[in-house]
Design a protein that fits this description.
The chain is an alpha+beta fold. Helix content is about 40%, strand content about 10%. A hairpin with a 4-residue loop joins strand 1 and strand 2.
Length: about 700
């Protein structure tokens, strides 16, 4: 077989394969006898192809002049601009970043030859005409727009270096991934224009924020945490790095000012508060748009009156010398009824103890000795009634430097609390053993409370009050059952019955102990419910004598309220203002049947730890650090720094950690009361009347 026949058959075979894959080729006739295309049709196809190429070139140039993207960079920028308004904020930021990065990239040269699907140059058909000169000129004139063209030459040089730093060094400048991504998107959306420079020179915005960062100590922060750069006399490379360092310092300062310098878990696990850091994108947007960037940073400080008062007190304490009205050391003063001791320190001692009397009276009498005993008992000192060195030290309080540290640590904890407490709130101050109700910005009622013991501390949390239970049943928590009541049962099987407690035994062998409603119930007559993971609440108590003590840390974690009927009246008149609730109306509901009264209006319950606060007279009050939280907060301020995740992400991480710690168990439906007060265990029927509900 000659070469011509072999080539003809191979061409026919290949074309059959192509037709099997792609279908028949229309308009192409094959001569099956000689295996090649007929000559007239072949020439017409070549001529048509050349004509199409000649006509297509000027049309492409016109399309490019009309605004069609000529390069991948321009196309990406246009797609980002169109997509951003219709996508979520996060995707819009990513689109802006992609568009900015694409605009900075150098547009690739237009290919000079047509390419095949595989990327290889396709051979030009024989006789095809070359593209026209007009097409080549149009391609050169329609490159991607330069996003830096509008910048001053000095700022352009810095912008180019910012691009390089964000590309290769941003992970060193911004340790947090989320913050790094926001910064990159922010600058790309600005076409990499510097935020702190105008024409290569430090602008008013930069001067304002630097001044604010250098006065960070007015908010109890450490100015050494915010390294402020200098911009004078720097090269474009150094200016770009200073630009990003100042951006990082501003974001860190805003986060510290609003949410604190470390996660509160570094202090205690007995806390569940929002501690919400600001969104970095909002920080940069706010600073970029503000007329006074330094004042705009102040908006991230806690808005609460308690924080503002401590800030003012901090400035006052730093500006004044130590007070001279301290009780001086001296000889021991003790009671001598027959011949009272006299001492020049007695008038100041009487004032410090809140006793009246003549300033010229120097006698250490029985009234003073009794007041000294009460003070010693409240502060866990030996109760002798004598004025000794330890009592004098406690009466004088901590030194000025220690007081300043206490103020700073309390300011730090204010950053953990919710920024908005709504129109109504019930705020507990644990070291002060007090509860205050505010409504529309005004305190309308306050009372004394009992809190958890030192080894069973009341947690710090924020929740909303959901309902009030009249005549509650007390389901004894498992910790009390196992640690206290079961040992009593072993020693004296009738002990719990004498206390009014009932014992039932579940099928799994566990013990359930509860106390029916009644006057002797450990929860008293009223329970105030704000469901939380610590299973604590506020309630009445039959042990009224505890409220006479100065230090009232006796419970297992819940809070006992001195006047619960009045507290219920106050809350119900906020939540149900048309029903005319009074304490007497609440008391008339006392009996043996549980009744729930829903609170439809939102009332926040905030459990705080303020062992330093400013009272109504404008004086600084210091309370005992009963849970040692203040010392731990201060230690963390000195040693800890860390990122704070947004609350929703933090809860998700806690849920994952919990699921990893506990083996999987089959879910079981439990009632709200089982989960909150029965701890999720099945309970046997008990002889109590059915619960009433007031919606």
């Amino acid at each position: 077989m000659n070469c011509y026949m072999r080539e003809s058959r191979r061409a026919s075979h290949l074309d059959c394969g192509r037709r099997n894959r792609r279908g028949p080729r229309l308009g192409v006739l094959w001569n099956w006898e000689n295996g090649r295309m007929s000559d007239p049709r072949y020439e017409r196809i070549l001529a048509s192809t050349a004509l199409v190429l000649i006509l297509a070139a000027p049309i492409g140039a016109i399309a490019q002049e009309a605004g069609a993207p000529a390069t991948p960079s321009a196309a990406l920028a246009e797609s980002a601009r169109v997509a951003a308004p219709s996508e979520p904020a996060a995707k819009a930021a990513e689109a802006a970043a992609a568009a900015g990065a694409a605009a900075l990239s150098v547009a690739p040269a237009a290919p000079s030859e047509a390419t095949s699907e595989t990327g290889e140059a396709a051979p030009s058909p024989k006789g095809a005409a070359a593209p026209s000169a007009n097409s080549a000129i149009a391609s050169e004139q329609t490159g991607a727009p330069d996003p830096l063209a509008a910048l001053d030459p000095a700022d352009r040089a810095v912008a180019e270096k910012i691009h390089d730093l964000l590309t290769v060094k941003s992970d060193k400048l911004f340790a947090n991934k989320r913050e790094r991504a926001v910064v990159e998107s922010f600058y790309q959306a600005r076409h990499l224009a510097p935020l702190w420079l105008d024409k290569g020179v430090e602008n008013a915005r930069a001067r304002a924020v630097i001044a604010r960062l250098k006065s960070a100590d007015t908010d109890g922060l450490d100015i050494n945490d915010y390294n402020t750069p200098t911009f004078a006399g720097l090269s474009p490379d150094a200016l770009a790095e200073a630009e990003l360092k100042l951006t990082q310092a501003v974001l860190t300062y805003a986060r510290h000012l609003q949410a604190g310098r470390f996660p509160y878990s570094r202090v205690s696990l007995n806390i569940e508060l929002p501690q919400a850091p600001p969104d970095p994108a909002e920080v940069l947007a706010k600073i970029g748009q503000a007329a006074n960037a330094g004042a705009a940073l102040d908006d991230f400080s806690p808005p609460h009156e308690g924080y503002r008062q401590l800030k003012a007190m901090l400035a006052q304490m730093r500006g004044k010398a130590a007070p001279a009205n301290e009780i001086a050391d001296g000889p021991l003063l003790k009671l001598n009824a027959k011949m009272p001791m006299e001492d020049p320190r007695v008038p100041l001692l009487r004032e410090r103890l809140g006793l009246g009397g003549d300033a010229s009276d120097l006698k250490y009498d029985a009234k003073i000795a009794e007041a000294v005993k009460r003070f010693q008992h409240a502060n866990e000192l030996p109760v002798t009634g004598s004025l000794d060195a330890r009592t004098i030290k406690e009466l004088n309080g901590p030194p000025r430097d220690k007081q300043i540290e206490t103020v700073i640590s309390n300011m730090e904890r204010w950053r953990w609390y919710p920024r908005d407490l709504g129109a109504s709130s019930a705020i507990v101050n644990l070291p002060d053993f007090s509860l205050r109700v505010t409504h529309n910005g005004t305190q309308i009622w306050s009372t004394r409370i009992v809190i958890g013991k030192q080894d069973m501390p009341t947690p710090l949390l924020s929740e909303t009050m959901k309902f009030i239970t009249i005549n509650p049943t007390w389901n004894v928590p498992p910790s009390i059952v196992n640690n206290e009541y079961l040992p009593w049962l072993q020693r004296d099987p009738a002990a719990l019955e004498r206390m009014g407690l009932r014992v039932t035994y579940n099928r799994d062998g566990s013990v359930h102990i509860f106390q029916p409603p009644g006057e002797a119930n450990a929860l008293g007559r009223i329970r105030f419910n704000f469901p939380n993971r610590f299973l604590v609440y506020q309630h009445d108590t039959p042990d009224k004598h505890m409220f006479a003590h100065d230090v009232r840390a006796y419970s297992h974690g819940c809070m006992r309220v001195q006047d619960p009927a009045k507290y219920a009246e106050v809350l119900l008149n906020i939540a149900r203002p048309t029903e005319n609730w009074t304490a007497d109306k609440v008391k008339r509901m006392f009996g043996t049947g549980e009744q729930d009264i829903q609170l439809p209006a939102q009332i926040w319950v905030l459990l705080t730890y303020q062992n330093a606060f400013v009272d109504e007279a404008g004086k600084l009050q210091i309370r005992r650090d009963i849970y040692n939280l203040d010392n731990r907060t201060l230690a963390a301020i000195k040693t800890e720094r860390g990122m704070i995740e947004p609350p929703q992400e933090r809860k998700r991480e806690e849920a994952v950690a919990t699921s990893q710690r506990r083996p999987g168990v089959a879910p079981r439906n439990v009632s709200f009361f089982e989960a909150l007060f029965g701890f999720g265990r099945p309970m046997q029927a008990r002889p109590v009347p059915p619960r009433g509900i007031t919606r």
